[in-house]
Amino acid sequence: MTPIMPKSEAAELIKAARIRKKLDWSDIAAEIDAPLVWCVAALLGQHPMQAAQAERVCALLDLDGAVAESLQLQPSRGIDPALMSDPTIYRFHEALAVYAPALKELIHEEFGDGIMSAINFKVDIKRRADPDGDRVVVTFDGKFLDYRW
């Protein structure tokens, strides 16, 4: 019996197939009727996919069942420390390091004692035109979870 393909290996095959087939991530998300950011995160190994989703992605990308099997595994969520050197990923960490304490204060002021869920959570990205250069708009949409005693 062979081991199940690691999610990182499946992600590399998916990225290569997407590029070679000249597909956008949004094409793949539309194929499986999934939110764009969630779909990309799942294809990069951060969420498990349902069997039907994994099979449709693999059919679209001409990838075999080993990739579909890997896409269905429960992930070990997190980030590879080596990715911290990537400027885009580092800037997200930097932005949260600077603004998270202020956001925490504002959440407590507006909602009370609790947290924003990262499980019951949606995230989206949009481009907004601006005369000084296009802007990246990232929206975090998490359910408020109050502390209950």
Automatic annotation (TrEMBL):
Active-site annotation: R91, E94, S117
Q: Please tell me whether the keyword Transcription regulation is annotated for this protein.
A: no
Enzyme Commission number(s): 4.2.1.104
* Listed InterPro entries: Cyanase, Cyanate_lyase_C, Cyanate_lyase_C_sf, CYNS_N, Lambda_DNA-bd_dom_sf
GO MF annotations, alphabetized: cyanate hydratase activity; DNA binding
- Reactions catalysed according to its record: cyanate + hydrogencarbonate + 3 H(+) = NH4(+) + 2 CO2
CDD domains to which the protein is assigned, alphabetical:
Cyanase_C
Q: Which residues form the Cyanate lyase C-terminal domain?
A: 78-149
The record's keywords, sorted A to Z, are:
Lyase
Q: Which family does it belong to?
A: Belongs to the cyanase family.
PANTHER family documented for this protein: CYANATE HYDRATASE (PTHR34186:SF2)
Protein purpose = Catalyzes the reaction of cyanate with bicarbonate to produce ammonia and carbon dioxide.
Q: What is this protein called?
A: Cyanate hydratase
